[in-house]
Write a structure and sequence with these properties.
Order of helices and strands of chain A: HHHHHHEEEEEEEEEEEHE
CATH class of the largest domain in chain A: Mainly Beta
Shape of chain B: elongated
Structural class of chain A: alpha+beta
Oligomer: heterodimer
Distance between the termini of chain B: 20 Å
Number of strands of chain B: 0
Order of helices and strands of chain B: HHHHHHHH
Helix content of chain A: 25-40%
Largest sheet of chain A: 8 strands, mixed
Radius of gyration of chain A: 26 Å
Mean pLDDT of chain B: 88
Low-confidence stretches of chain B: none
Largest interface: A-B, 81 and 62 residues
Strand content of chain B: under 5%
Bound molecules: FE2/S2 (inorganic) cluster
Mean pLDDT of chain A: 83
Chain lengths: 318, 192
């Protein structure tokens, strides 16, 4: 399914930069300067020009805030449902709506004020409160970018990213293969994010093949399920580490450690994955507890080189 | 537990406020958010706003003091906050490993910003010489604003690419949190 072009522009993909963070400079800056002008009119000798300037910039701030809200909302819908940033985004949105409401009321009140040369003190305080709320909200917005990488490297993504994490278990299967319901219907390219007994796995379909690999990049643990899939490789959305999906090897950094790749098979049109029974969660934890500096990897024990986690699509023989 | 509500963030910030160096501070480590990206909102918004008011003042020609005065204040506050943003930008740039393409991009970003900054200093000086309470602007001042803003937009865009394309500053403070999430999720991780 080709991506909706309107959505892709609102997400800033053609610009390699999301639109929302470009636009939010304006409401933030305009609201601050509006307060500065208010205070200048109040403290100085008083000037109708300053009072008017504060009103103009405030109106422009509200207008730009509304414009910025549109791509902001689209960005929010793009966040995976069980991602911590989804909740931060809700706070960010709620506080921003509050700020716009406060300024809307303040603008109406300004038309009813009597002193043309000085902004009334209650109105100045209203702006101070609104800016405090805005700072908190802007900070939360910044956290979503700098802590969670929302919007970072998104323009490189090709296909659909996971909307939620699908919980699965290997408990019922005798041979360790876990079938992934619905995976045979995946688009190409598309990625699912699975939790198989707590092990977070990205299942990707790209260029006609299925791949399963660990979700977390080994550099700063960026989400590989939101990366760029191409030619049997995945690029981390955050700082561009490139991993081979057949072997899990780092092709180029900044990451230095290889990722885990898992076996995938396609039997009777059903996709299933096998996460090794030597539970890698506990393997890593154990090595940490023992203070071992060398990381443990279940794959390294099995020579020769690990089997590619790849299943070619059955050729169409009709 | 990871904070998700404003009160929880506030608690975490106060806990982090201890042991920090000047570079940490300039990079915004105690805040958990790059300081540069926080400060640049003001010049980035105010200088184009100044240009918009300049254009209005120049086109309307009706000696409306509110337009020129607003532009004057926009340039002034923009200059003050841009000055504060310079050391934070340098601190972020020194954090980029040599050899990465972002380093060159950062230099270009800095060079363009310096030009914009210099142009607005000249612009502001010209206006200051006439006094801020003059309800008209000259063609030179308008041109200076226009050229500076024409340079500011590509420069700010480069700054944005550093974040959204190159990931500069991304997961700088949250990597410990994500490391634990990754370990809990069975991922293979390198040494810390
Ligand atoms: S987190 Fe993947 S490259 Fe940095």
């Amino acid at each position: 399914m080709p991506e909706n072009p309107v959505r892709s522009v609102l997400e800033g993909k053609p610009f390699r930069h999301p639109l929302h963070p470009m636009l939010v400079h304006f409401p933030i800056g305009l609201f601050v300067i509006s307060l500065v002008l208010d205070v200048a009119s109040y403290l100085g000798r008083g000037s109708h020009a300053l009072v008017l300037g504060a009103l103009y910039t405030m109106c422009a701030g509200v207008a730009m805030g509304i414009v910025a809200a549109v791509p902001g909302f689209v960005d929010w819908t793009d966040i995976r449902r069980d991602h911590p940033a989804k909740g931060i985004g809700q706070w960010h949105m709620g506080l921003n709506i509050l700020v716009l409401l406060i300024y809307g009321i303040s603008i109406i009140a300004r038309f009813a004020t009597t002193n043309p040369r000085r902004t009334d003190l209650p109105l100045i305080f209203t702006s101070v409160i609104a800016i405090c709320v805005l700072m908190v909200s802007g900070y939360l917005g910044g956290l979503m970018v700098y802590d969670d990488g929302i919007g970072v490297g998104r323009h490189r993504r090709r296909g659909r990213a996971p909307v939620r994490t699908i919980p699965l278990t290997a408990a019922g299967s005798a041979d360790g293969w876990v079938s992934v319901p619905g995976a045979e219907l995946m688009e190409d390219p598309q990625t699912l994010r699975l939790s198989i007994d707590g092990v977070i796995v990205a299942l990707a379909k790209a260029d006609g093949a299925y791949y399963a690999f660990q979700e977390f990049c080994t550099h700063r643990y960026g989400p590989l399920s939101e990366g760029c899939l191409k030619g049997g490789q995945v690029t981390c959305p955050w700082h561009g580490s490139l991993f081979d999906l057949h072997t899990g090897k780092v092709q180029h950094g900044p990451a230095k450690t290889n990722i885990n790749v898992y076996d995938v098979r396609l039997v009777n049109g059903k996709v299933s994955i096998r996460v090794p029974s030597d539970d890698s969660i506990n393997a890593v934890r154990r090595s940490r507890v023992a203070g071992a500096t060398q990381e443990r990897d279940w794959k390294t024990a099995a020579e020769p080189a690990p089997r590619p986690a790849r299943v070619d699509r059955t050729p169409d023989t009709r | 537990m990871r904070p998700t509500t404003p009160p929880e963030f506030a608690r975490e910030l106060t806990a982090k406020a201890k042991h920090l160096t000047l570079k940490d501070f300039l990079q915004g480590k105690p805040l958990g958010h790059p300081l540069h990206a926080f400060l640049v909102h003001l010049p980035m918004a105010l200088w184009p706003t100044a240009l918009a008011f300049d254009i209005l003042a120049y086109v309307r020609h009706d000696n409306d003091l509110s337009l020129t005065l607003t532009a004057w204040w926009c340039i002034l506050v923009g200059l003050i906050t841009a000055t504060a943003a310079i050391p934070t930008g340098i601190a972020d740039w020194t954090g980029i490993r040599p050899g990465r393409p972002a380093r060159k991009l950062g230099l270009l970003h800095a060079a363009l910003n310096s030009a914009v900054f210099a142009l607005f200093i000249v612009n502001f000086t010209l206006r200051g010489l006439r006094g801020p309470y003059v309800p008209s602007i000259t063609r030179t001042e308008l041109l200076l604003s226009a050229i500076a803003v024409a340079l500011l937009f590509p420069s700010a865009y480069l700054g944005g690419l550093l974040v959204y394309d190159h990931g500069i500053g991304v997961a700088r403070t949250s990597k410990h949190y994500w490391r634990n999430v990754a370990i809990a999720g069975g991922a293979r991780v390198g040494e810390d």
